[in-house]
């Protein structure tokens, strides 16, 4: 599953943007969308942050 944060214009906020998406990846209730985390299947991947795309992270999930 790909999680994407808000766009940001200030490069100094990129670290903060990544932290926000990382926290959402850990705390969001994926069961509301019909998924569960499966960290043993694959690692999560941080795509970094950009002004137009915001912070982006992939986490391994499977349907429930």
Task: Give the arrangement of secondary structure elements.
Blueprint: E1 2-4, H1 14-27, E2 35-37, E3 45-50, E4 54-58, E5 61-63
Structure explained in plain terms:
By secondary structure, the chain is of the alpha+beta class. Helices cover 22% and strands 31% of the residues. The protein has 1 helix and 5 strands; from the N terminus they run E-H-E-E-E-E. A 3-stranded antiparallel β-sheet has the order 1-4-3, covered by helices on one side. The longest helix has 14 residues, at 14-27. The model has no long low-confidence stretch (mean pLDDT 87).
Structural class: alpha+beta
State the share of residues found in helices, binned by percent.
10-25%
How would you characterize the largest beta sheet?
3 strands, antiparallel
- The main sheet orders its strands as 1-4-3
Strand content: 25-35%
Form type: elongated
Provide the gyration radius in Å: 12 Å
Helix and strand pattern = EHEEEE
The number of helical segments is: 1
What descriptive keywords fit this protein?
64 residues; alpha+beta; three-stranded antiparallel beta sheet; two-stranded antiparallel ribbon; 5 strands; elongated
Summarize the structure in short.
The chain has one helix at residues 14-27, and strands spanning 2-4, 35-37, 45-50, 54-58, 61-63. It has 64 residues and is α+β, with helices and mostly antiparallel strands.
């Amino acid at each position: 599953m790909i999680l994407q944060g808000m766009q940001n214009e200030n490069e100094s906020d990129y670290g903060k943007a990544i932290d926000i998406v990382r926290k959402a990846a850990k705390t969001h209730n994926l069961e509301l969308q019909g998924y569960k985390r499966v960290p043993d299947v694959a690692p999560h991947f941080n795509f970094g942050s950009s002004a137009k795309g915001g912070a982006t992270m992939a986490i391994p999930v499977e349907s429930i």
